[in-house]
Every structure is written in structure tokens, then in C-alpha cells.
Amino acid sequence: MNKFLVVSLGIAGLLGTAATSVAADAPAAKAEAPKADAAKPEGPKVSQKAIDAGKKIDWSKMDENAKKKYMKSTVLPEMKKLFVAFDKKHYSAMNCQTCHGEKAVENKFKMPSASLPKLPPPTDRAGFMALAQKKPEAAKFMGTQVKPTMAALLGKKEWEPSNPEGFGCYACHTQEAAAAAPAPAAPPAAGKPAAPPAAPGKGW
Question: Using one digit for the tens of pLDDT, what is the confidence trace for 43-87?
């Protein structure tokens, strides 16, 4: 299965902050340029179909069969449109396993999926900044299209600090283990140099 590297709401927020900061430091635009739109971050792109579909269900009260039917008939087609528009080459054959993993059926479609790239812990600002710099287009796509559309399809509000129960990155992605404090190094054996510390894990 082709795995695509995806990121979370935190990246979208960081990108928005960076865009605003860059715009504030830039020289004044020419009079004919539309000032208001230049620094304005792009809003979420959610289809009316996704919004309407989410209003008709109560995901938390649906049984397993109802959820499977809804995912196949509504969620997968709607999300596939987004992913194919973003990258037709990689997502033309998008199916349930793309997000739920190769063992989707065996794992009963459990989410979050360990087969998706792991994300830094929510407090790891540096980790999210590194992901945003490495894959800015993916970060923007996930933050402005994928996350809000999935939230709408499930009839939920998006995660934000004031709504920690909302739909966010970790609904689909597992987290990297938080970096533990290094243990004191044992003294090297006589005549042997000390081994270098292990590098921390990366989400991508």
C-alpha cells in the first residue's frame, strides 16, 4: 500500500501563524494589490454534501454495520475526491486500507491506525514545525481540507484548544513516543570510546 505522509491540525495552525508573521514583516504592498486577501489564511474547504451528511447521523450511536455502510457509501467517496484532487497518482486507487491499514478488516477498522505515519506529541512544537517545513503542501491539505471534512462527515466539530473533544489529528494518527530524558551514560570500557546517543524517532 502506498503510504502518504500526513500531518495534523497543529501544523495548519503553525503554518497560519508563520504566514501571518511573514506578512507582518514584509514591506507594504503596492496600492493596486488586494491587501486584505494577501495575508489572509485560506479557510477550510468543506463541501456542502459532507456537512449535510454529517448532520443526518449520530456517529457515537451507530452500530458497526451502520458505520461500515456510511463509511463505504459516504465517507470514502467524499474523501477520495479530496485525495485524488491533491495527488491523483498516489490516490486513484484509494480504498479503506489507505487509512485503516492492510489489516483493516482483521483490526475491525480501529482508529487511530498504526499504519499511518506517527505524529509528534501534541506539545512538541519543534516536531510539528519540522513536519510543516518538510511537507508544507501536505500540511496545508490536511489542515484545511482533510481534517475539517472528516469532522463534518462524522457530525463533529474540529479540535481546538477550547474544544479538546473535537475531531483532530490523533483521531487517525498515533503519536510518537515522547523523548525520554537520556539515562546517565555508563563509563566506557577501558580503551573503548563511548557510544553516541541514539537519535530520536521521526514521524516521517
Answer: 557 899 999 999 999 999 999 999 999 999 999 999 999 999 999
> Which one-letter DSSP state was computed for residue 202?
-
Q: What is each CA distance from 92 to 25, 85, 139, 176, 188, in whole angstroms?
A: 41, 9, 20, 29, 54
Alpha-carbon span 177 to 118, nearest angstrom: 9
Distance CA 169, CA 119 (A): 8
* Mean pLDDT, residues 133-160: 93
| CA 159 from centre of chain | 12
pLDDT-derived band at 190 (thresholds 50, 70, 90) equals low
**In DSSP terms, which residues pair with 173 in a beta bridge?**
113
Q: Quick check: 174 and 116 in contact, CB under 8 A?
A: yes
Distances (CA, A) of 30 to 22, 24, 33, 34, 142: 17, 15, 6, 9, 32
Q: Which amino acid is at 102?
A: E
Residue 24 backbone phi and psi in degrees, to 5: -70, -30
Helix (H) or strand (E) holding 143: none
